[in-house]
Amino acid sequence: MKEIARLLRIVRPYQWWMLLAAVLGFTTIGSGIGLLVSSAYILAKAALHPSFHELQLGIAGVRFFGLARGILRYIERLVSHNTTFKILSRLRIWFYESIEPLAPARLLHYKSGDLLQRITGDIDTLENFYSRVIAPPVTAIMISILLWVLMGNISLTFAFVLLCFHVIAGTGIPLLSGYLNRGISSKISALQAELQTKTLDCIQGISDLMLFNRLGSHIGQLEELKFRELELQRKHALIQRSHESLTGLLMSGAVITILWLLAPEIQQGNINGIYTAMIIIAVMASFEAFLPLPDAVQHLEANAAAGKRLFEIVDVKPVVTIPDHPAKYPDNHSISFSNISFSYPETHIPALSDVSFSIREGEKTAIVGPSGAGKSTISNLLLKFWPPSEGTITIGDQKLDHLDAETVRKNISIVSQKTYLFGESIRKNLMLAKPDATDEELKRALHFAGLEPFADKLDMWTGQHGMNLSGGERQRMAIARVFLQDASVIILDEATANLDTLTEKSVMQSMLSLCRNKKEKTLVVITHRLGNMSLFDRILVLEHGSIREQGTHEQLMQKKGLYASMWSLQHRHAPPELITGS
Amino acid sequence: MNLDRRLLLLVTRHPLPFIASVVLGTLGGVMMIGQAAVLSRIIDTMFLGDAGTGNILIPLLLFGLFSFLRALCNWTSETEANRGTLKIKRLLHEKMLRKISALGPLYTNSVQSGRLSVKILKGIESLDPYFSQLIPQLALSMAVPLFILAVVFPSDPLSGFILLATAPLIPLFMILIGKAAQKATAKQWETLSRMSGNFLDVLQGLTTLKLFGKSRERTRSISEISESFRHSTMKVLKVAFLSSLALELVSTIGTAIIAVEIGLRLWAGSIGFQPALFILLLTPDFYLPLRQLGTKFHAGLEGVKAADDIFALLEKPEPKQNSTTDSLRTQRFSEQPIRFETVSYTYSGSDRNVLNDINCTLEPGCKTAVTGPSGAGKTTFINMLLRFIEPLEGSIMYGNTNIQSYNREEWLNRISWVPQHPYLFNATLRENLLIGKTDATENELLDAIEQSRLGAFIDSLPQGLDTKIGEQGARISGGEAQRLSLARAFLKNAPILILDEPTSNTDPVLEKELLESMKRLIKGKTAILIAHRLSTIRDADLILVFDRGNIVQSGTHASLQQKDGFYRKALLAYPEGTAV
User: Fold this and answer.
1) Confidence grade of residue A499 (pLDDT, cut at 50, 70, 90)
2) B-contacting residues of A 414-473, CB under 8 Å?
3) What is the structure's pLDDT at B532?
4) Pairing of strands A364-368, A538-543
């Protein structure tokens, strides 16, 4: 229930909307009762053949409540749906804002299929939070009070009897149903989550499944999972579909009890028989407010569970704290790491230990070393995805801790090994780097990255994860983004690993000339492949998280150390990389 | 009101639960009439007769009995409808999965997988109210009012006429307003489906957004999408709820008219109190099923739109599969050459051949290197060997038999494929490896790990082989994913091998080891390599140079080196010794 309290706090800005909708719900059901009671009043009065004007009160009531009910219901439904959507939008934004600071460091544990399930599933569940969880009990309580007042005027005993039946309908049935249903909903959503992941596996991994002749069995598994889900749905339905019938039985029980108690009262003349029809009809009509209550309890549970899962994701502390008063981004773009150590969570081996180096503005640096040496960790730390465990990083004269992460990333471009393209147009994917870019600029960027064929296809859809483009084309898209972003520091993190030799060479050369033309651009190339090394001002050689050697290509070759042996190993075995891309 | 014929057809596949549901629901209506008759008699007795408890005991018990039977009938009616619905949902789920598997990788790569999975899961679930509520209600909204009319007419024809006259207004309003609502609902469903795909995309690309400092401002676009969803939905609802307003008004005004009409006649003495009350009690229940039809129709609408998406998928033409299933088992596979004979292929919607008149022979046990710039048609060439697509013109022969005449599963059993971006399943590392050979022994598994140099990586994981791997291998580098895929190939040990850039992304030391273990894997097998290392290409028995859908050059390294052309040009681009 802690979750429900938290959810209530999140949706609190809409409390007046919610109250308005609940009051409208109450007046709607109240009008229904009013209509039927006035009708009964007409009949009861008419049976005694009074003067005609005695019927007029009833006729006016029938007219008024008849119209009011329809109109109030229409307004109530609009207001409550509108409130629901406002709440939904609030929840979605709340969720995104909460996880945004966590990416990417804290989100590695969550598979995105799982995230999709959580967001669309759990947030859709919360869509019901107002209309199915909060509103029904509030409305029911108001109706119960109304009936208490009406009945209390005739006899407190009847009012009390009716209250008992109302309480049973409002709490007994929900509790019984909740008891019978326990665990089923959570089992269903667990199965749905599993189905979602397995379906994504089936769709995205279909070629592997076909190749290993596993598609049939994988689909068999999916069908089995669906079957199990449907079995549970069946159990759930057996219980859930009984609510209306059970509430109907309670209504009949209330009618029978009150009639049984009413008969002697009328016989003894304590109560006028004229009220009989009105009392019974009011009692029957009041149960309308209690019909949605058993479901409300189930929705409450589902909401609490969904809320709990969302809170679980959100409640993780971000690894990088945002400075309260970020310092101004320095004009000088030199970078310095002093005594930096870092370990990824849940690993024993440090990714970097006691690393110190500095890169002057405009310098062209290569960071090389075998895979797992900690090369990419350097860029992760510099981009403030993780904070170093020890040591200080500075940009210009500012400590990185004091800078706003977004500003840092705007000033540092990176092309990594895997480029994510959004399932949008090429134009939109490129404009991420420069939101106000003109078509002319976009085309120039595409030319620069060796993507001339796409220059007149700016509106082409890149496909899911950019899959309409080849691996090489996706990498070049990233290079086009760098061109557009025009940041002062450019990091290429194994960026050309998937490119063909010709393109790689031309891209590298344009990259270098881009950096040379604009004197102040700093270039850091992270690579395990040693080629064109003489182009760099300085080479840092990393192994096992430490800097082993640094210097120019010539210096390092003369030293005949790790670098020289790596270089000769690569060049003896596989001289040039030939042609090809994918 | 638009009833989708395709959906009704599904009901006829499992008709019994639905028939039971309608019969039981109607019986429930009859019990309700019984309740009203008894109740009006009790009240009449208490009001105008002798209100002694002895007089009303039996009628009260009878009222209780009717109540109980009514509850029972209604409950079983609903659960029966639910049973039928589950059967249909299961049927649809099966059909959709079979369809996707028949359409294959070319289709799944062309659609947003978030959208596709929403279609399968949510789409089917959103059909639930259509079958479990709308379909039975269609019959009930006819049957129950008819029974009520049948009892009202004999006791008071005038009230019967009023009911009969007002009832048709309800379906009339529904038709008038329902059409507009349906169109709007279609739009809403599209928005929902897009929003889901968009949200997944945003979440998966969160790191990229962060890199460009755009992650915080995405909040605004999410808020805009949500707001526009709210606006468009509210527009739909303003119209959709009008129909229920009209229905509600017909029913309340109908009740009011009856109340006044019988009240006046009761006052005038032309009708008794008991029949008047009986009719009044029945009036709301006369309109109720018709009104419920309105709300259930609204709930079912979403399903109708989802059905469009579902049937659009189900009705997609499947690539033709040859049904003749020559068995490959009896043939000694690795001794037959694979010949491409004037093979061409064009993707639908494109005017350019992605493969143009391809002729080549892949000799058994030989190593063929496929090379050429991006977009040259290499991937399509491989897709044909894998039979993900079939040639539009020409044929691929295995020995003297067209490969299309083999059962595809059996053909694929003979092929191992190490793609550029292997897909890693959301499962443990062990499960991801065992997909290569389900019944592999622990020794075979360890051997494959050793051969593909995965040992050190697995040792570094907290739970070793039993570590779960995230979607798209979030915690696995490209090189590791490829080594994993190689290990699968070792396990599968198929006679034909297709390797796609097998040596990219790894460091020089591992690369050297890997090349050596690959050589062992390739030995004696027919190997096709999309390669770009000169060392790999140089050793190939045949080099095929692709450009713009054509094989522009073919031969061995020695022969191609001599000839002017693409190959030599590429070779010269990097003089030995200074190259990458």
Assistant:
1) low
2) 414, 417-420, 422-424, 432-433, 453, 463-465, 467-468, 470-473
3) 66
4) parallel
pTM summary value: 0.74
CB B249 within 8 A of CB A70: yes
Check whether A236 has a pLDDT greater than 80. yes
Chain A neighbors of B105, CB-CB under 8 A: 206-207, 210
d(CA A281, CA A151): 12
Mean confidence (pLDDT) of chain A: 85
| Region for residue A369 given its phi and psi (left: phi exceeds 0; alpha: psi -120 to 50; beta: otherwise) | left
CB–CB of B420 and A58 under 8 A?
no
Give me the helices (H) in A48-111, please: 53-99
Residue from the list A264, A569, A579 with its beta carbon closest to the beta carbon of B372: A579
Q: Which domain holds residue B255?
A: 5-314
A-to-B residue pairs, Cβ atoms closer than 8 angstroms: 520
Sheet holding A335-342, edge to edge: A352-359, A335-342, A390-395, A398-399
Q: Measured between CA atoms, how close is B428 to chain A, in angstroms?
A: 13
| Domain stop point among B264, B280, B314 | B314
The reply to whether B120 falls in a domain is: yes
pLDDT at B162: 93
Instruction: Say if residue B286 is in the same domain as residue B354.
Output: no
Mark which of B268, B284, B314 sits at the end of a domain. Answer: B314
CA distance A96 to chain B (A): 7
pLDDT score at B41: 93
Shortest CA distance from B53: residue in chain A: A263
In a domain, B237, yes or no: yes
Please indicate whether, in this complex, the C-beta atoms of B534 and A574 are within 8 angstroms of each other: yes
Return the closest-CA partner of residue B410 out of B345, B491, B495.
B495
Q: Name the CA radius of gyration of chain A, rounded.
A: 35
Task: Look up the ipTM and state it.
Answer: 0.80
Residue A571's closest chain B neighbor by CA? B577
- Taking CB atoms and an 8 Å cutoff, what residues of chain B touch A282? none
What is the rounded distance in angstroms from the CA atom of residue A411 to the CA atom of residue A383? 10
Distance from C-alpha of B504 to C-alpha of B512, rounded to nearest angstrom: 12
φ, ψ of residue A337 to 5 degrees: the values are -110, 125
Q: Which of A127-131, A297-301, A330-334, A570-574 shows the lowest per-residue confidence on average (mean pLDDT)? A: A570-574
Domains of chain A (ranges, CATH numbers): 2-180+242-314 (1.20.1560.10), 335-573 (3.40.50.300)
The predicted pLDDT at position B474 comes to 47
Task: Give me the pLDDT at residue A113, please.
Answer: 53
Query: How far is it, in rounded angstroms, from Cα B255 to Cα B167?
Result: 12
Pairing, β A538-543 against β B393-398? unpaired
Overall number of domains in chain B: 2
Whether residues B570 and A39 touch (CB distance < 8 A) is answered with no
Nearest residue of A to residue B221 by CA position?
A93
Please list every residue in chain A whose beta carbon sits closer than 8 Å to the beta carbon of residue B478. Answer: 417-418, 497
Distances (CA, A) of A517 to A35, A505, B233, B257, B526: 84, 18, 53, 88, 50
Listed as ranges, residues in chain B with pLDDT below 50 are 1, 472-474, 504-505, 575-580
B249 and B343 in a single domain? The answer is no
Task: Give yes or no for a cis peptide into B168 (omega within 30° of 0).
Answer: no
- The predicted structure's pLDDT at residue A451: 84
Q: What DSSP string runs through B545-574?
A: EEETTEEEEEE-HHHHHHS-SHHHHHHHHS
Q: From chain B, pick out residues whose CB is under 8 angstroms from the CB of A407.
A: 213
Query: What pLDDT does B472 receive?
Result: 44
How close B79 gets to chain A, by Cα (Å)?
6
> Are residue B296 and residue B350 in the same domain, yes or no?
no
CATH number of domain containing B545: 3.40.50.300
In chain A, residues with a C-beta closer than 8 Å to the C-beta of B531 are: 580
